[in-house]
Design brief:
Length: about 850
């Protein structure tokens, strides 16, 4: 029954009911004004503790004083007296400018409350009214907490579940199903980021006229909130960036402050004025005086504006850095992300240009090729066979999609990342929220290192490993309709200040570039000498604010590493060759020579005489050499042709042509040529199953059919057959990190874990009685083993023992062997970091000033 009066408030009519009580129109007989009264349910009112807490919370809410928040006038027994708001609830669709007039006022109200530590918790269209004057009012602000512990009533998706069961405990859902944040749906404690999520859902509804999450019942709606990725294709482009930030399911990745909402719009309209403009003569007088003063100042003090000055300085890389793999400066020019190997372990480091040192970003092991979001808040990168992103402010990284050996990416303002998934011919696109990637372009050769142009629809990339008339820098479009070569140099590029930056003959050059027409104009001008480059990638990055940063030295990504012999105690026995960019050492069966990768080719070195010869020289990337057991041939992988890494072999004396062993659609890397000569073991990066281990029979038949050996939904690589070929050691991440395992070969029952706290790159001793591997903290480890073929097969690994600090240099990708061991297990040939460390990075402020002098 409708009450006649509450205290001195005369009840006039019932306005409605919801999960948090019934609302009535009433008259304040003392002040003579119309008010709204919310009467809480009987079940709540009978609990004195809850009622007392409700009163305390309501008193806090009454302190809010903002034009876009409906005011709370007082608390009576079982009732809350509030401002009566005349107006309509929100309903879309509406044009963007109209929607933003409403949304900007909602954001202003939320910002005001959030600054005071108050969260709405139940933001939805039913709690938002627009007065006839166009003023937005938020209702029920904070009542979800004030009315906590009240069971929610069943009903429609719009009104349920406004559950209020002790907001301070986990396992409880607060809010309204269609608008609650994923953490609310999981019953977790929430903060202001839940309001930011709801703001995004409401704005989507204003723009489209449709509810973003709507199921047949509450549980179905909650399931959509937790699992459905918002589709923003139906909203105007200018709102997608903002909605993408608001609707991140992980609150750590979500927009942190609603006050930043306006700046995330591609075109920020003027907010609605709460009052019609009035002509202000005082303002006019002040304006006239200002103009007069400016004019006098111009004529009295006119002079040539100060010339932009170029400033150069260096910053140190993180302490104990052995190599820089790649780097990227934020668009705002404040931060630089560096993929650096420190003590041989590569991770992302974040360095503010005005700070004295960088900070390690946890969870970014094996990171390569970082790139930034347009707002400088997130970093994309590649690691563990995936494209990932991480907030610059910290937190765990998020995997977006597979990228076996990512070769660069770029992020536009519409929430699209275009990237090179591997050293192949295709560039792909994927949402910044993750999903299934799709091809954008596919060329003959290796397409990599894309960068978006300012319009967000076109991008540049470099095509290498192709014919001379095709390789170079291309301008392409996301719709795949444009793909034109603009530069013949096969160097990756940076774009800033209307100019391209690229490498030619170890010199960093620049040329004016019209990004709208795709035309290069003017002359090519030098910027710096001796800038690092590696495998078509320049170690150069530039911001939109005129800051240029680069590494010098000529060869990046491990210039100071060196092959060297060490004994089991870690004592240096002697260097092998000069320092330089060398990887993948492989000792010949007679231990008189070593095969290795230098630059983009396979080389052989006579260990006694020191003479070296290049084994490959075809212009492609040739790497990961392994010897045949008779020492007469070397197997390796190469991306010649279509840009996919396939398996080849060549006579060790350099005679004859390279012979193709195996070609498949997926990238492969040689892991071993078995000691009995029967198999070439290799890893294959199949995007359907990650990295798997296969063997290619080498029995002399014309048709070689590869056989999978270790294949699962996890990454398996570094396959190594034992000397008798009865066992295979390998690395897998099935436990959540890379560990070394052994299983019988050919496949049968049984699997044994060798490492305990992380390990990779297993190698057998010549008699099969010991396994070596590299631990997660870069130590060389040894494990004694006892094996019986059976049946049944039995394998008894001992406890891993640390031999010495390896300080291995990580190669271009983290799927390569960086050491080998002699058959007796007494000497180790390591690709170790040099003592000189990595050179400092050069920073140039206003780098383009004075180029035309």
């Amino acid at each position: 029954m409708t009450p006649q009066a509450i205290a001195h408030y005369r009840i006039n009519a019932k306005l409605g009911a919801g999960g948090m009580g019934e609302v009535y129109r009433a008259t304040d007989t003392k002040l003579g004004r119309e008010v709204a009264i919310k009467i809480i349910p009987d079940t709540f009112a009978r609990d004195s503790d809850r009622l007392a807490r409700f009163t305390r919370e309501a008193q806090v809410l009454a302190s809010l004083n903002h034009p876009n928040i409906a005011a709370i006038y007082g608390v009576e027994e079982r009732a809350l007296v509030m401002e009566l708001v005349e107006g309509e609830s929100l309903q879309g669709p509406m044009p963007f400018d109209d929607a933003w007039k409403i949304a900007s006022q909602i954001a202003a109200a939320l910002e005001y409350a959030h600054e005071r530590g108050i969260v709405h918790r139940d933001l939805k269209p039913a709690n938002i009214k627009v007065t006839p004057d166009g003023i937005v009012k938020l209702l029920d602000f904070g009542l979800a907490k004030a009315l906590s512990d009240q069971p929610g009533a069943a009903g429609s998706v719009e009104n349920s579940p406004t559950l209020t069961m002790n907001a301070t405990q986990l396992g409880v859902i607060l809010g309204t199903a269609a608008y609650m944040a994923p953490e609310q749906a999981k019953g977790k404690i929430v903060d202001k980021r839940a309001d930011i999520w709801a703001f995004g859902v409401v704005l989507y509804e204003l723009l489209t006229g449709e509810r973003l999450f709507e199921g047949e019942d509450v549980s179905d709606t909650l399931a959509q909130v937790l699992t459905k990725q918002p589709d923003l294709d139906r909203v105007p482009v200018k709102a997608r960036r903002l909605l993408g930030e608001c609707l991140q399911k992980d609150p750590k990745l979500r927009l942190r402050d609603i006050g930043d909402a306006g700046r995330l719009l591609d075109e920020k309209p003027m907010p609605a004025a709460s009052q019609p403009p009035r002509f202000n003569y005082g303002w006019l007088t002040a304006a006239v005086m200002a103009v007069v003063t400016l004019g006098l100042g111009f004529f009295a003090f006119r002079r040539t504006p100060p010339e932009r000055q170029t400033l150069r300085y260096t910053i140190a890389t993180p302490e104990n850095t052995t190599s820089i793999h790649s780097l990227a400066i934020s668009p705002d020019g404040h931060l630089v992300a560096i993929a650096a190997a420190v003590n041989g372990k590569r991770q992302l480091w974040l360095r503010a240009l005005d700070a004295l040192q960088g900070q390690l970003m946890p969870g970014t092991e094996d990171a390569t090729n970082p790139f930034w979001s347009p707002d400088s808040r997130y970093i994309g990168f590649f690691a563990e066979g995936k494209l990932k992103k991480i907030a610059a402010s910290g937190g765990p990284p998020q995997s977006l999609c597979p990228a076996p050996t990512g070769r660069g990416g770029s992020w536009n303002r519409d929430g699209i990342i275009v990237f090179s998934p591997d050293a192949g011919a295709a560039l792909q696109r994927v949402s910044v929220d993750g999903g299934v990637p799709a091809d954008v372009i596919r060329n003959e050769g290796m397409a990599h290192f894309p960068i978006f142009l300012p319009d967000g629809r076109h991008f540049l990339y470099v095509l290498s490993q192709s014919s001379p008339d095709r390789k170079g820098v291309y301008r392409a479009s996301l719709d795949g309709k444009e793909n034109l070569r603009i530069l013949a140099d096969d160097s990756s590029v940076a774009f800033a200040a209307g100019r391209l930056l690229f490498i030619r003959d170890n010199t960093l050059l620049t040329q004016s570039f019209n990004d709208a027409s795709g035309r290069l104009t003017g002359e090519v001008l030098p910027v710096a000498e001796g800038v690092s480059y590696s495998l078509n990638n320049i170690y150069v990055t530039a911001s939109e604010t005129g800051v240029l940063l680069y590494e010098s030295g000529g060869l990046g990504g491990g210039e100071n590493n060196q092959m060297a012999w060490y004994d089991r105690g870690g004592r240096l026995l002697g260097a092998v060759g000069a320092p330089g960019r060398v990887f993948d050492p492989a000792i010949s069966p007679d231990e008189k020579s070593v095969a290795f990768q230098r630059g983009a080719d396979v080389w052989l070195r006579d260990l006694a005489r020191g003479a070296e010869q290049r084994l490959t020289a075809d212009g492609s990337i040739n790497s990961v050499p392994f010897w045949a057991p008779d020492g007469g041939r070397v197997a390796f992988n190469s991306n010649r042709g279509e840009g996919v890494f396939n398996l080849y072999q060549k006579a060790a004396n350099g005679s004859g042509k390279d012979e193709l062993l195996l070609a498949t659609p997926y990238n492969k890397g040689v892991d071993q040529w078995s000691r009995d000569g029967q198999f070439v073991v290799y890893s294959q990066a199949d995007p359907r199953t990650k990295n798997d281990i296969w063997v290619l029979p080498m029995n002399g038949s014309a048709e070689r059919k590869p056989v999978p050996v270790v294949r699962s939904e996890f990454d398996e690589l570094f396959g190594q057959l034992s000397p008798d070929s009865h066992w295979i050691a390998y690395t897998s991440d099935e436990s959540g990190q890379r560990e070394v395992y052994v299983r019988p070969f050919p496949a049968s029952e049984g699997q044994w874990r060798i490492s305990i706290t992380g390990g990779e790159q297993p190698r057998w001793r010549g008699d099969g009685k010991e396994l070596f591997f590299v631990s997660a903290d870069n130590k060389m480890m040894a494990v004694a083993v006892k094996a019986a073929v059976g049946p049944p097969a039995s394998f008894e690994p001992g406890t891993p023992q640390a031999l010495f600090e390896a300080h291995l240099t990580q190669g271009p990708v983290n799927t390569l062997f960086q050491y080998d061991v002699t058959a007796d297990g007494k000497r180790f040939l390591l690709d170790s970091a040099g003592a000189g460390g990595s050179p400092p990075l050069t920073v140039v402020v206003n780098w383009d000033a004075g180029l035309n002098k």
